[in-house]
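User: My collaborator sent over this chain with a note saying "see what the structure looks like." That's all I know about it. Can you take a look?
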Amino acid sequence: MEEIKFKDGRESSWWGYGDYFCTSPACEIKILLPYKSEPPHGDSYHNLIINSKTIRGYIWSGYFLWSKCGNYFTCHWLEGMKGYFEGKVWHTSQIQRATIIVSPTKLQYRIVIEPSYKELNLLRREGAEDELWNILLDPDGSPCVVVK
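Assistant: Without extra context I'll predict from the sequence alone. Here is the result:
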């Protein structure tokens, strides 16, 4: 497994197409991202395992961002892939794509559907990180799921 590199200790360099791991900056919790698959003409997607617990769905390769306190991270989430043959050509499509916010110390996560992952990624790229985290950590947002 290869360790994900972080530019400033919080935002990752691009990663994908392999097995990866990283450690929370706030504690010694190791996050594993083993390679699952990739659609034709698309980036890889990975399982998300924290303390030997697998989180539902998959994580898209690419970006990984820790909160300033180091207690949460966010990245692109994928519910799954489906596909079908049309003649000899296999077609794939995403079931649902969103943003996930995870608390590795509490083993809780929240899938954020609105605003869309594209809108949230735009905030991140524009440097509006405080606004991004306000949306992601809003207690009135979608409920957190506790991993059992």
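A starting point for your reply to your collaborator: The chain has one domain: 2-146.
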